[in-house]
Amino acid sequence: MPRDGTATRERILQTAERLMTEQGYQATSLDEVIAESASSKGAFFHHFSSKHDLALKLTERYAARDLEHLDAGLAAVAEIDDPAARLVAFLRFYEDGADELMSEQSGCLYASVLAERQFTGSDINRLVTKATVAWRDAIVDLLRPALAGRAAVAGIDLDALADHLYTTFEGGFILCRTLEDASAMRAQLRVYRQLVEALLSAG
Question: Which of 101, 60, 83, 59 is nearest to 189 (CA)?
Answer without folding.
Answer: 101
